[in-house]
Amino acid sequence: MNIAAKRNPAEEAREVFDRELGEVPQELRWREWMGRIEAVLFASASPVGRDDLARVVGQGVSVEMLIEDIQAELTGRPYELAEVSGGWMFRTKTQFADAIKAAADLGDQSLAFTEMEMGVLCAIAYHQPIDRAGLKDIFGKEVNRDLLARLRFKDLIASGPRSPRPGAPHTFVTTETFLVTFDLQTLRDLPELNFVSNV
User: Fold this and answer.
1) What is the mean pLDDT of the chain?
2) Quick one: which H or E segment has residue 82?
3) How many C-alpha atoms does 17 have within 13 Å on its Cβ side?
4) Residue 48 DSSP symbol
5) How far, in Å, are 116, 158, 172 from residue 119 at the CA level?
6) What pTM did the predictor assign?
7) Residue by residue, what is the 3-state secondary structure of 87-156?
8) Most exposed residue of 22, 41, 65, 194, measured as fewest CB within 10 angstroms of its CB?
9) pLDDT at 159 over 70
10) pLDDT in tens, 12-36
11) What is the pLDDT of residues 172-199, one digit of tens each?
């Protein structure tokens, strides 16, 4: 038995997968590629990037144009195709939130924050990577480890690089979940901070 002849089933599936749709009439290919992108996005619980979507359409086909056509077809629907955190995902429109809550048992998906949790999350978002000493400088007091643990549990923050301070403490950074939760493409989309001076 030739061991070199054994192949990974995923590799075989990729070889069989016809990105170009060579057997499909030219006028039907665009619609099929749109369907493929919709299926991939529908099956994913997190944003799907351009490179991943490009694997299911023909070479040289514009993923962005396919996305625009899908978005146009969704006009008036209760869900939308949103660009979030470097990719795209389906999301229900906020105007239907009450209907969804009334009809579906969504469990405890609450992302309610205390004022201090929101303050710490904002401080991390705007000053990352930041360590606990940096947070203390901002708030004028120690930030409770339990509060940071709650933000970690919600997957909104994670450990960042070691700080250059003595002892090289861990720093905190925001996560992709943070970007998705707050509907941000990148951290550059954070609102600008406008400080009011009492002078």
Assistant:
1) 86
2) strand 79-84
3) 13
4) B
5) 5, 16, 14
6) 0.61
7) EEEEEECHHHHHHHHHHCCCCCCCCCCCHHHHHHHHHHHHHCCECHHHHHHHHCCCCCHHHHHHHHHCCC
8) 194
9) yes
10) 555 578 899 888 888 899 999 999 9
11) 999 998 998 888 889 999 998 876 545 4
Look up residue 37 and give its DSSP letter. Answer: H
Residue 172, phi then psi, degrees to nearest 5: -120, 145
Kindly report whether the peptide bond that precedes residue 164 is cis, defined as omega within 30 degrees of 0. no
Residue 84: helix, strand or coil by DSSP?
strand
- How many Å apart are CA 40 and CA 48, to the nearest integer? 8
Instruction: State the Cα–Cα distance between residues 170 and 130, nearest whole angstrom.
Output: 8
User: Which alpha helices (H) appear in 154-197, and where do they start and end?
Assistant: 176-181
Q: Cα 68 to the chain's mean position, in Å? A: 19
Helix (H) or strand (E) run with residue 64 in it: helix 63-73
The three-class DSSP label of residue 68 is helix
